[in-house]
Design goal:
Length: about 475
C-alpha cells in the first residue's frame, strides 16, 4: 500500500497502524515548512535528537525558505536537507520498517512520498574482547549487538572495494536485519545465490535467539547430529581471516555472533592464539588441541572398558589401583563423576565472577575429597575425569566441546552395559553421526580430508608462517549441494 497525497489521510493511517497514543517511545510532531504542513514520525532513543533538531530548525527558518510552499519534494530534499543519509519512499510497509529500525520519516502535504532521514543511533555496549575467545596477545575488540558496528569492525580490517554487505530482512514480526558479507572476487557464487534465496524464502515470525535461531533455520539437523554445522565467532580478526579466504559471513542484528559459511570440522580446531605466537610454538599448541579431542572423547570410556571388563590388564598398565571395585560400582562411579563435573562446570560458567574462584576451590577440594570418603567416587575415577575435563576446556569452541561430551556419555553407557561390543558399536555410531553432520551448501563436513586436498589439510593441521598462510586462490571444495 502506498501513501496518499493528503497529509491528513496519511496521519490517520499512521494512527490506525501504530499505537501513537499508547506507546510512549513513538514521537510525532506537526510542523510548518513555510505555508506547507508536514508531519514527523520517529522512535525516541533511536534518533539523534541534536541532528534532527538542527535539520528541522533550518527547515522552519524563514530565512531558509525561498518559497512559501514546497513544490517538488525531490528538489526540496536535495537542496534543504543537508544530512548525508536521506531518501524518498512511498510504500507504507517500507516506511514502518525503517521507522521502527531507527530512521525518522517526514511527511509533507501534497506528496505521496515520505522523506526518510537516517539519523539513527542505538544503545550499545563497548567492543570489548569476548570472554570465550581471549588471547594473550592481539586485538581486544569484539563484535557487539549492533549490526552497523560489526560491519564497521570488518570494514576497518578489510578495506577492499570488493567487500559487500547485502541486507535481508527476516521475521514477519521482528523484521530482523541480516547482512551477508562477502568479497565479490573470491566468493562462491553458487553458495551466495543459494544463501540469498534461502534467506528471502524463510517463513518465520522472529529470530528469537538471533544468530542461533538463524543457524537452525539454515541447517536442518537431526537429534543424532550434535556437532555444530556453522562456525560462529565474536572476534573480528577471526571473521576477517575467513572472509579473505572466500567464506561468507552472516551478521545478525542484536547478536554479537557472526556466522561463517561454509563450515568444516577442522575449523573448530583453529585458534587466533596460534597466530599471535611464533610458528613453531603455534604449531605445538595446535597439536596439543588436536590431541585433546580424542582424549576428551575416549579416555573415560577406555578406562571404564579396561577397569570394568579387563581389570587385570588395567592393573598391569597401571590404570587401576588394588581397590577391588566391581564392574557395577565402577560404572556407577564414572556416571556420577560425569554428572557432577557437568553440574560443576555449568554452575561455574553461569555464576558471577565474584564467586567463580570460590566455586572452583569448593568443587576441586571439598567435593572431590568428600565424594571419595562417602564412596561416591574413587581416586582413579576423579583423576581420569579431571584429565578429561582439562582436555575439554582446551578445545576452543565450547559448542564442539559440548558435542564431544554427549558422545562420551553415549560411549560410557554402552560400554558399561555391553563391554567391548558396546564400545565398538557405539563408537561406530558416533563416526556415522559425525559423517552425516549436515552443512549449508551440502559441502563435506570433513573437507579437506574428504574430498582430499593435501595442501589445504597441511595448512589446517600446522601453523604456517604468515608469508605462506594465505592461499594464492580460494580452495575448491567441489560443487554446491542441494
Amino acid at each position: 500500500m502506498n501513501l496518499s497525497r493528503s497529509l491528513e489521510e496519511n496521519i490517520c493511517y499512521i494512527e490506525d497502524q501504530l499505537p501513537i497514543a499508547a506507546s510512549f517511545d513513538l514521537m510525532t510532531r506537526r510542523l510548518k515548512l513555510g505555508d506547507t504542513s508536514a508531519f514527523f514520525l520517529g522512535v525516541n532513543g533511536f534518533c539523534k535528537t541534536d541532528v534532527l533538531q538542527q535539520i528541522f530548525s533550518d527547515l522552519q527558518n524563514p530565512m531558509y525558505m525561498q518559497d512559501d510552499c514546497v513544490k517538488d519534494i525531490l528538489v526540496y530534499m536535495e537542496s534543504r536537507i543537508g544530512y548525508a543519509q536521506a531518501s524518498l519512499e512511498n510504500s507504507w510497509e517500507e516506511i514502518f520498517r525503517n521507522v521502527l529500525s531507527g530512521p525518522a520519516a517526514l511527511f509533507i502535504d501534497g506528496f505521496d512520498q515520505a522523506i526518510l532521514i537516517d539519523a539513527r543511533t542505538y544503545p550499545a555496549r563497548g567492543i570489548a574482547e569476548p570472554d570465550l575467545e581471549r588471547v594473550t596477545k592481539g586485538s581486544r575488540d569484539g563484535f557487539v549487538e549492533t549490526l552497523l558496528f560489526n560491519a564497521n569492525l570488518i570494514r576497518r580490517r578489510v578495506r577492499s572495494p570488493r567487500l559487500c554487505f547485502a541486507m535481508h530482512g527476516i521475521g514477519s514480526a521482528s523484521k530482523t536485519d541480516v547482512a551477508v558479507a562477502y568479497l565479490e572476487d573470491t566468493v562462491n557464487r553458487q553458495l551466495l545465490d543459494k544463501l540469498s534465496r534461502t534467506l528471502d524464502s524463510l517463513q518465520v515470525t522472529s529470530l528469537t535467539m538471533g544468530a542461533r535461531s538463524l543457524e537452525e533455520l539454515l541447517v536442518r539437523k537431526r537429534w543424532w547430529n550434535p556437532l555444530p554445522s556453522v562456525q560462529m565467532t565474536e572476534r573480528p580478526d577471526v571473521a576477517c581471516s575467513y572472509l579473505l579466504e572466500g567464506h561468507i559471513l552472516l551478521l545478525v542484528d542484536n547478536s554479537p555472533l557472526v556466522m561463517i559459511l561454509p563450515c568444516t570440522v577442522f575449523q573448530f580446531t583453529q585458534s587466533p592464539e596460534d597466530y599471535y605466537k611464533s610458528p613453531s610454538v603455534g604449531a605445538y599448541f595446535r597439536l596439543v588441541r588436536f590431541c585433546c579431542m580424542p582424549v576428551s572423547l575416549l579416555l573415560m570410556p577406555v578406562f571404564l572398558l579396561l577397569g570394568g571388563f579387563y581389570p587385570d590388564t588395567a592393573r598391569e598398565l597401571g590404570l587401576l589401583g588394588d581397590s577391588g571395585m566391581t564392574r557395577q560400582r565402577l560404572f556407577f562411579y564414572v556416571l556420577a563423576v560425569e554428572f557432577l563435573l557437568d553440574l560443576f562446570r555449568y554452575s561455574s560458567s553461569l555464576s558471577s565472577g565474584k564467586f567463580s574462584g570460590s566455586l572452583s576451590i569448593v568443587g576441586g577440594l571439598i567435593i572431590g575429597d568428600i565424594a571419595v570418603s562417602l564412596n561416591w567416587a574413587s581416586v582413579e575415577v576423579l583423576f581420569y575425569a579431571a584429565i578429561t575435563l582439562l582436555a575439554s576446556l582446551a578445545i576452543t569452541d565450547t559448542e564442539f566441546s559440548d558435542a564431544l561430551r554427549l558422545y562420551r556419555i553415549f560411549l560410557l553407557i554402552f560400554t558399561g552395559l555391553a563391554g567391548l561390543p558396546g564400545f565398538a558399536a557405539s563408537f561406530l555410531l558416533i563416526l556415522l553421526s559425525m559423517a552425516t553432520t549436515p552443512t549449508f551448501g551440502g559441502f563435506s563436513y570433513f573437507w579437506p580430508l574428504f574430498p582430499f586436498n593435501r595442501k589445504a589439510l597441511h595448512r589446517l593441521l600446522f601453523r604456517i608462517p604468515t608469508p605462506k598462510a594465505q592461499p594464492s586462490k580460494v580452495w575448491d571444495r567441489g560443487p554446491t549441494g542441494k
